[in-house]
Specification:
Elements: E1 3-13, H1 16-27, E2 31-39, H2 44-52, E3 59-69, H3 86-96, H4 104-112, H5 119-143, H6 145-158, H7 168-179, H8 184-197, H9 202-214, E4 231-236, H10 243-257, E5 262-266, H11 274-285, E6 288-291, H12 295-304, E7 310-314, H13 323-336, E8 340-346, H14 351-360, E9 368-372, H15 381-389, E10 394-398, E11 407-409, H16 412-419
Parallel strand pairs: 4-7, 4-8, 5-6, 5-7, 8-9, 9-10
Antiparallel strand pairs: 1-3, 2-3, 10-11
Helix pairs in contact: 4-5, 7-8, 8-9, 9-16, 10-11, 12-13, 14-15, 15-16
Length: about 450
C-alpha cells in the first residue's frame, strides 16, 4: 500500500541505531529518516568536559517522519509540506548559479525542480523534453541520410590527408564503388590515384578510375606452350571450385581450336564419376587420357604423354584444412615436373575466403589463379577486392558450362570494368570474344 510522509520528529542517541530504536519505540516501524545530524549533547557533564578535556563525545540526532497509509478509498491523505533537504538545497543552488548558460527550458525545469516534493514531477518533465529532442534528432538523421553518407565518404577520403580537395564527381565515384561492394579503403585508393592523375571532364575521370582500378588486378600469363617439350600444367584447389570444368575448357580450346596435341592426367580418383567424365571428354575430342594415384604413377603417366604439346593434370579436391593432403599434392606435382600450377577458386566466395584459401594452398606451390563461376555472382565488387589482395596473378576467368567459349585470359581492365558496372557477362562468353589463342604463346 502506498504511504505518505507526515510531520517530522527528532530523536537523539549515542549511535544512529540507538536514535532509530527510540524513534521506532515511540512512533512505530513506519517511519523514514529525513535528516541525520551529529550534535554535542547539551548537559552539565558535556559542558564541563568540553571546557576541561577538549570537548565531549558527539551524539546522533535523527529527524524522522511517520509514513501514513492512503485512505480506505485509495485517495491520499491531506498533503503536508515536507521540510527542505539541506543537501538538495546546496546541490541545486550550485547548479542554478550557471543556469543562464543553459537552454531556457532546461534552466526553467531545474528551477522548478527545487528540493521540494515536486522534484519527481520536474525530473519527469526534463525526461520528457529529452525524449522529444531525441526524436527530433532521429527524424533529422533519417531525413538527411544521404548527406550523412556524403560526410562519411568525404571524411574517409581525406582521413590520410592525401586528397586536399575532393570534387563532387570524385565523391560520387567513391560512393558508387562502395555501393557495388568494393572495399572502402580500396575505393579510396582508386579515387586518390584518379585525383593525382588529374581530369578535366567526367569522361576523363571515368577513364582514370578504370585505369586505377585495373592496376590493382595482378595478371599472370596464361598457359604457355614450349618448344623443348610438353607444357605440363596442373589445376589444384578445394572441391567444388570448377577444376575439372576449367581443365576441359582449356583442353578443348588448345586441342580443337588450337589444333595442338593435348593429353589429360586424372589424379582425381576420389570423386565418383570424375574418371568417367574425363574419359568421355577424351573420346569426344580426341584427347589422350591417363590416370595416376600417387607420385610414381604420376611420373609414369606424364612420361607416357611426353610427345604431346600440352599435358593438363586434374587433381582431386583437397580441404584447405588438410595440411597433410596439401603436402601430398605438392609431392605429386614435383614428380610430374609441373611447369605451371593454377589454383582454381570460385568467384562466389567472399574476398576474405578467397585470400584465405590462397594462403592455405600456398604450400602446394601454385603460381597463378583461375577464377571461375563469375556468371553466378550477384555483384562483382568483391572480385576486385579479392584480386587486389592476391599475391599471385590471375591467369584465366571463366563462367558457365559452355566448354568452347566461356574461359578467357585474365584482363585487369575487363575485370575492373566488371566490378565498376561497365562490363557484363553475356550469354555464352564473359564480356566479349575469347582470345583465339586463349594463351598458348610459346615460351
Amino acid at each position: 500500500m502506498a504511504r505518505r510522509q507526515n510531520k517530522t520528529h527528532v530523536f537523539r542517541g549515542r549511535t544512529c541505531a540507538e536514535a532509530m530504536s527510540k524513534a521506532k519505540s515511540k512512533l512505530g516501524r513506519d517511519i523514514a529518516i529525513v535528516e541525520r545530524r551529529d550534535v554535542k549533547p547539551e548537559n552539565l557533564f558535556s559542558r564541563l568536559t568540553s571546557g576541561r578535556l577538549g570537548g565531549g563525545a558527539l551524539e546522533v540526532e535523527l529527524e524522522v517522519a511517520v509514513m501514513e497509509p492512503n485512505r480506505a478509498d485509495g485517495s491520499a491523505p491531506e498533503a503536508r509540506p515536507r521540510p527542505a533537504n539541506p543537501l538538495l538545497h546546496r546541490t541545486y543552488a550550485k547548479a542554478l548559479e550557471g543556469r543562464e548558460r543553459l537552454n531556457p527550458e532546461v534552466a526553467g525545469a531545474m528551477a522548478a525542480a527545487a528540493p521540494r516534493p515536486e522534484l519527481g514531477e520536474a525530473a519527469a518533465g526534463i525526461a520528457g523534453r529529452l525524449d522529444a529532442l531525441r526524436k527530433t534528432l532521429e527524424k533529422s538523421v533519417l531525413e538527411n541520410a544521404d548527406k550523412w553518407d556524403e560526410i562519411r565518404a568525404l571524411i574517409s577520403l581525406q582521413a590520410r590527408g592525401g586528397v586536399p580537395a575532393v570534387s563532387p564527381d570524385l565523391l560520387a565515384s567513391h560512393r558508387d564503388m562502395t555501393a557495388r561492394g568494393i572495399d572502402e579503403d580500396l575505393a579510396r585508393a582508386i579515387v586518390e590515384d584518379a585525383q593525382a592523375a588529374g581530369f578535366r571532364s567526367t569522361g576523363e575521370l571515368e577513364a582514370g578510375i578504370l585505369r586505377a582500378a585495373a592496376r590493382r588486378v595482378p595478371v599472370a600469363a596464361p598457359v604457355l606452350l614450349r618448344d623443348d617439350g610438353p607444357a605440363v600444367v596442373a589445376l589444384i584447389g578445394p572441391s567444388g571450385m570448377g577444376k575439372t570444368t576449367s581443365l576441359a575448357k582449356l583442353a578443348i580450346h588448345f586441342g580443337v581450336k588450337g589444333r595442338r596435341s593435348v593429353g589429360v592426367v586424372n589424379e582425381d580418383l576420389r570423386r565418383p564419376g570424375a574418371d568417367g567424365q574425363l574419359n568421355n571428354l577424351g573420346r569426344m575430342f580426341g584427347l589422350a587420357v591417363a590416370t595416376a594415384a600417387g607420385p610414381a604413377e604420376m611420373r609414369d603417366a606424364v612420361r607416357s604423354l611426353s610427345k604431346l604439346d600440352l599435358i593438363l593434370i586434374d587433381t582431386s579436391g583437397r580441404s584447405p584444412r588438410d595440411a597433410g593432403g596439401i603436402r601430398e599434392l605438392a609431392e605429386i606435382l614435383r614428380a610430374a615436373e609441373v611447369r605451371e600450377t593454377h589454383l582454381v577458386l570460385s568467384g562466389l566466395a567472399s574476398d576474405d575466403a578467397l585470400a584465405g584459401l590462397a594462403e592455405r594452398f600456398r604450400p602446394a606451390g601454385f603460381d597463378r589463379v583461375i577464377l571461375t563461376k563469375l556468371d553466378e555472382c550477384l555483384e562483382y565488387g568483391h572480385i576486385l577486392n579479392a584480386a587486389s589482395r592476391l599475391a599471385d596473378g590471375l591467369s584465366y576467368v571463366a563462367h558457365g558450362p559452355d566448354y568452347s567459349t566461356s574461359i578467357r585470359p585474365a584482363d585487369g581492365a575487363w575485370l575492373a570494368g566488371l566490378a565498376l558496372g561497365r562490363e557484363e557477362i553475356g550469354a555464352g562468353r564473359p564480356g566479349g570474344p575469347v582470345d583465339d589463342e586463349c594463351g598458348g604463346r610459346t615460351a
